[in-house]
Design goal:
By secondary structure, this protein is mainly β. Strand 4 and strand 5 form a beta hairpin.
Length: 121
């Protein structure tokens, strides 16, 4: 089984920065796409940023130019650098990874437990 462990959340003032990490551990053959999602109170979970195993990225319009997703395949870790944070970025941030347990196995989604990000004005 694969576990995703997020870290790096916290409370900052508007304009500040945080860096989230998502580390995969356990037994697996490969990790493909990794995403960061967020869910604010009373709102649906939304995708924030996406990175393929080859490093191609995509971002929600609301975070373009402020957030940067990256990954270290050797460490099986994805990162989300969040700059110029706004109060509307306040949410629980979740990491998702597409995992293949064996070479012949179908891929499946694995989610982390979430980490709280709070931005005050």
């Amino acid at each position: 089984q694969v576990q995703l462990v997020e870290s790096g959340g916290g409370s900052v003032q508007a304009g500040g920065s945080l860096r989230l990490s998502c580390a995969a551990s356990g037994s697996f053959f490969s990790i493909g796409v990794m995403d960061w999602y967020r869910q604010a109170p009373g709102k649906q979970r939304e995708v924030v940023a996406h990175i393929t195993s080859g490093g191609s990225t995509n971002y929600a319009d609301s975070v373009k130019g402020r957030f940067t997703i990256s990954r270290d395949n050797a460490r099986n870790t994805a990162y989300l650098q969040m700059n110029s944070l706004k109060p509307e970025d306040t949410a629980v941030y979740y990491c998702r990874a597409v995992v293949q347990s064996r070479v012949s196995a179908p891929p499946y989604d694995r989610w982390g437990q979430g980490t709280q990000v709070t931005v005050s004005s």
